[in-house]
Design goal:
The structure is a homodimer. Chain A is of the alpha+beta class. Chain A contains 3 helices and 5 strands; from the N terminus they run αβββαββα.
Chain lengths: 139, 139
């Protein structure tokens, strides 16, 4: 199913694993300023969403919906932000970010908005666990 | 179908109409620095993608794919950027942007990256026409 898939080392370094969904690996951005998931379709060689098959695209956006709902369940969220940029890391990945009015980048985008503030490891592990549970709860 | 739908006046002021698709109105951002479409689902009261029905969500992402293909057909595009933010204008809208290496915001995001540079009206009208044709061509 995911022959040849390797997570880009920059994505790997910036994030922590949360859950493997049907298509995507869901990972938490290690930046305590924002509750921020990154979804990476577990297929080799993807750059654009259009590189997925139509049924995989449907699955991708369904998993983005699930990620948004999980963030809303465990974090304060005034607005979800979705983004697929890939200007630096070309491996296809979708950002799903819970934004709070007045957060460190508000109302601008999180991308390119200063340096990440790594989580305290205990707080991060608790958040990962809560997100994992929320992602796997019935929908 | 779109009872009560009114385009947010800030989106209206920043963009020019290109085409009405099945769900979305496709509009060109009036910023000559980037080939940039904004898709606005023609439904009243939407804020998050999750506010759409499941079938409307499928249609939204299909139209985002169409918009990306249209931009790739008429503009130089090294990478598509997709975004749904809505931190300032809450009416649900999805950005589809053709990015070029070395463009005015590269490799950062286009959102919040300086002031728009309005198109020359003739060039803008030509681009709108080419995008309209590309959006309506068989896929």
């Amino acid at each position: 199913m995911n022959a040849g898939f390797l997570l880009d080392p920059r994505l790997s370094a910036d994030t922590r694993p949360v859950a493997r969904l049907d298509l995507c690996e869901a990972r938490l951005m290690d930046d305590a300023r924002f509750a921020w998931l990154v979804l990476v379709p577990q297929r080799a060689g993807l750059v654009e969403v259009a590189d997925l098959t139509p049924s995989e695209r449907t699955l991708l956006w369904h998993e983005v919906d699930r990620a948004g709902a999980a963030l809303q369940a465990v974090a304060t969220c005034d607005k979800l932000n979705l983004g697929a940029l890939g200007n630096v890391v070309r491996q296809l990945h979708v950002h799903v970010v819970a934004r709070r009015e007045g957060d460190a980048a508000w109302p601008g985008p999180v991308w390119g908005s200063g340096a990440a503030v790594p989580y305290d490891p205990t707080a991060r592990d608790m958040l990962v666990e809560r997100l994992r549970e929320a992602l796997q709860s019935p929908r």
